[in-house]
Structure formats: structure tokens, C-alpha cells
Amino acid sequence: MYVKSLTLKGFKSFASATTMRLEPGITCIVGPNGSGKSNVVDALAWVMGEQGAKSLRGGKMEDVIFAGTAGRAPLGRAEVALTIDNTDGALPIDYTEVTIARTMFRNGGSEYAINGTSCRLLDVQELLSDSGIGREMHVIVGQGQLDAVLRATPEERRGFIEEAAGVLKHRKRKEKALRKLESMEANLTRVNDLTGEIR
Ligand code: ATP
């Protein structure tokens, strides 16, 4: 599994559609300060479902949409598409190539699609977390994050290791199952009450 391409359109400084084709192995992005290198990494996190504006180095989520320059008007939407080579079947989906797309409009929330079919954020998260990637899996190490790891308390460091080891997805599933169980128990109590009333 490797990232085959990343397309940005209206995302941060990338007003026009820009596609980066990648090969297996190491890719380096070089450029002068402020030319948009970190914006490419932000796009990667964003398309995988990042929900925090701060993690994307903005004040609010709409800040990812191209805000305009002296010579170009602002845009109304940001779009990013990430294509992953899945010939090794690392992603639990029956396709050798998987494209995850996210679109955000200035006046609304985000839309997601997997291979052209619209889906929920949860579907994207589930697809990625099973393979150990995704926005919370520490696959993206931002500037200053290494310092944060070195300065972390033992408890925080344990959190990093647990997340990297894939414990997080099981914890999330457990929390979801417990919430379901709670609502089932509430339903059961209600059924028992109703049965008592009928008798
Ligand atoms: P450095 O080497 O200094 O870390 P960089 O190449 O990583 O720089 P980025 O931080 O990716 O650069 O890009 C910063 C640029 O992106 C700035 O010029 C900023 O104005 C522009 N930018 C960020 N958000 C938007 C937006 N919503 N619309 C237009 N331009 C934006």
C-alpha cells in the first residue's frame, strides 16, 4: 500500500487543481518558505478526516478554503482527493486502487466519497484505521511534534504508543458498543415498564 497521488483544488494556497503523483518509497517536497509544503501535509490529514482547525494550522475549519490573493478571488469550496495503491489488500476494500475524497463548502460541512461513492466520515475512518493509518494514528508527524513527544509526561507518552499500536480503534469500538448497550438497556427498561402497565 502506498500513496499514488494527491489532488488539491481550492485547498489553502492551491487555488487551481494540482496533482502530485508519488512513487513507492520516500518522497521529498522542497520549496521556499511559505510556498505551501506544509499545506500538502495538511491536505493529507484533512482528506483522512481531520476535524481540528488547530491541527490544520487554522482558526476555523473554513480556513482550509482558498481565501484569495491580490490577483485571484476567493473560492467557495476546497477539494482534496487521495489515491492509495491497494494491490496488497492492506485496506479492507475490494479495490486495487482506492480514492478518498473530501469536499468542504464555505456555508456547510464536509462531504466524503470513497471511489466516487459518497459516504460518511465514519466510513473513511473505519477504512483507514483497520490498516493503521488515519488522522489519529500518528502517521503524520508535524513540525514541533517530536519536541512534544520528548517533553511529554510518561502518561502522555503511553497514549502516543497506544495510538501508534492501534489500540485506539479498539477503544473507540468499545466505547461505541458500550453506548449501544446503554441505549439497549434503556429500551429494555422501557419495554419492561410497558409490559408491567399492560398486565
Ligand atoms: P515553511 O517552509 O516556512 O514551513 P511552507 O512551504 O510549509 O513554509 P505553508 O505553511 O504550507 O508553507 O504555506 C503557507 C502559505 O499558504 C502562506 O503563504 C499562506 O498565505 C498560504 N495559505 C494558507 N491558507 C490559505 C488559504 N486558505 N488561502 C490562500 N492561501 C493560504
UniProtKB/TrEMBL annotation:
Domain of life per record: Bacteria
Q: Where in the cell is it found?
A: Cytoplasm
Which positions in this protein are listed as binding ATP?
32-39
* Residue runs in coiled coils: 167-194
Note the subunit structure: Homodimer.
Q: Which family does it belong to?
A: Belongs to the SMC family.
The record's domain comment reads: Contains large globular domains required for ATP hydrolysis at each terminus and a third globular domain forming a flexible hinge near the middle of the molecule. These domains are separated by coiled-coil structures.
What job does this protein perform?
Required for chromosome condensation and partitioning.
Q: Which protein is depicted?
A: Chromosome partition protein Smc
